[in-house]
Amino acid sequence: MKFLRTAPTIGELRRTRWGSNSSNTPLFPIMASIFLLGASTPVLGNAARTQTFQIEAGWNAIYLAVEPNDPFPATVFTNCPVDIAATYDGVFSPRQFSSDPSANMLSLLGWGVWYSPARSDWFLSDLSAIHGQKPYLVHATTAFSLEIEGEVEIPQTRWQPNAYNLVGFCLDGLAPPTFSQFFAGSAAHADCNAYRMVGGTWRKVLEPENEAMRSGEAFWIFCNGTSTYQGPLRVETSSFRGVLLDVSGDEIVVHNETTHPLGAEISHVVAGNSGLPMAVVVEIIGEEVGMKPIKIPMTNAAWTVTLPPLEAGDGIRIPLALQMEEMSQPKAHALLCIKTDIGTETWLPVQGTRENLK
């Protein structure tokens, strides 16, 4: 068989400007590099990771990205100096914003509050569970490091129009974006009318082009009109549960929402002891067979693939398949983390299923 082009080391993915007909889009070489990182630290549960927060004495605003293994507040904050935790659930009422996160605000409609059993007002608690993909106000009696382990879920920020929204995002812990970098791609947030918690009170972000966001931080930002903005890189999966791999395979679609080129990489993070044997599905062109899909196998240990630069408004489809012959159990779980060169992260749960082993 004679190929019209040389098969790449990783493969070729379909590239399309968002809104175009992807079935007619050209193939391009991914020009990726793989770094075998070795197996990561095993974690319990399915597609789980641990999120760490540096809690100060007094009020803190955090964004919890993982679903705790046990969501009962007393369990989440066991052996911790946290005495109050609150979150806002008023979906259909205006967002409540105040420069003081203390009792007057927490008593307003839409706020759920948990008080530690050690407090005299513990019986006023009406927050029965701590869930992931939500921001929280946390009050601590002393400074400490808080670790919460839980399953990864697909992030989805739901903006309430013409109101302040209490939100947070997953970001690089060492080199996160500034407020201006993160929100530049959204007309509804481009003015960066934001407040962040400093010393227990909300302070307006006066220089959004110079102030860096923080991973695990929650803040108020005004949404001018309607918005579905999820960040500089929009990541889509075919299921709200993440990437589901069986005999039919699955795919991830990423879109550059900025006005400039964006670099990105995708990493396989091992969850549990076995990892998940995946393959990148590519298409090659041959004179005899036309366009033929092939699988480029990836190791079931941790790996990282650098994607080609995304121009403004462009997207990439990343087809994935399960290496059935490498599966030794009916189900396996792992995580994929997609990072950008401006410091954003998107974590995706992956589940592989081999029916004939059940």
Main traits of this protein?
mainly beta, Immunoglobulin-like, 7-stranded antiparallel sheet, 5-stranded mixed sheet, 3 helices, 4% helix
Description:
- With 358 residues, the chain is mostly beta strands.
- The protein has two domains: 12-31 and 232-357, Immunoglobulins (Immunoglobulin-like, Sandwich); 49-153 and 157-223, no CATH class.
- Helix content is 4%, strand content 41%.
- The strands form five sheets. Strands 1, 2, 14, 16, 18, 19 and 21 form a seven-stranded antiparallel β-sheet that branches. Strands 15-23-22-17-20 form a five-stranded mixed β-sheet, with no helix packed on it. It has a four-stranded antiparallel β-sheet with strand order 4-8-6-7, with no helix packed on it.
- The longest helix is centred in the middle third of the chain and has 5 residues, at 179-183.
- The protein is globular.
- The model is unreliable at 1-45 (pLDDT under 50).
